[in-house]
Amino acid sequence: MLRHLVPENRLRAYEVRTVIDALCDDDSVLELRRGFGIGIITALARVEGRAIGIVANNPSHLGGAIDSPAADKAARFLQLCDAFDVPVVFLCDTPGFMVGPDSEATAAVRHMSRMFVTGANLTVPFATIVLRKGYGLGAQAMAGGSFKAPVFCLAWPTGEFGGMNLEGAVRLGQRRELEAIADPAERQQAYDAMVERMYEHGKAINMASHFEIDDVIDPAESRHWITTMLRSAPRPEARRGKKRPNIDTW
After folding, report:
1. pLDDT at 1
2. 154, 139, 137: which is closest to 204 by C-alpha?
3. N or C: which end of the chain has fewer CB within 10 A?
4. Quick check: 175 and 105 in contact, CB under 8 A?
5. Which whole-number Å values give the CA distances from 126 to 32, 101, 175, 194, in the listed order?
6. Which is nearest to 159 in space by CA: 20, 54, 13, 6?
7. Could you give the CA distance from residue 145 to residue 138 in angstroms, rounded to a whole number?
8. C-alpha span between 122 and 124 (Å, rounded)
9. String of DSSP letters for 34-77
10. Backbone region of residue 105 per phi and psi (left: phi > 0; alpha: psi in -120 to 50; beta: other values)
């Protein structure tokens, strides 16, 4: 079932909650704060009976871009998982952090940086699976700050990578070349060809061949990778009292 949940056509939308439900044990998913920071989904769930935390981009909102509320929501959830020794699985499908004047007016850098600071201080095992888009700093935030940080960083065959959204990269980087083409139809054809070249270059299989990620897997193998991480992780140390003195309330 997992093989068919993310469309092969990269322009088609899908419901990531369906992916989460298929990835986890039946009736085990408990989503938290669904009405807040809707660009990111946070949920407690089980895989083969083991508890995990899920942090997933929501491609149905802003194309999966991470805005300030979503970043706060993710950072607080990571604190929660860390406080109770719950391993984390990131499901990445983001064009990056939300940019522009409206986003900057929300103190975006301050809020979005929380994902890096919290991710870098996680003491629980965590892993990243790139379902589709893995662009820019937003994608790195969905991997604890770096694709090298997780226990494993994998991609489904639909995965694609780049420094930023491919269409935007072409419009910015090739602006002069495109403006020099007078015929609108010819300009669009050239633009489409440039995007296609960047897409081919950024395919997950190319990233894996250069060891930027660990592997490209059959989506049906995702649960096996997660359970392997859970079984191989050391047991949490015995302690008295709280692991964290508090968890952010906002």
Report:
1. 81
2. 154
3. C
4. no
5. 19, 33, 40, 35
6. 6
7. 9
8. 6
9. TTSSTTEEEEEEEETTEEEEEEEE-TTSGGG-B-HHHHHHHHHH
10. alpha
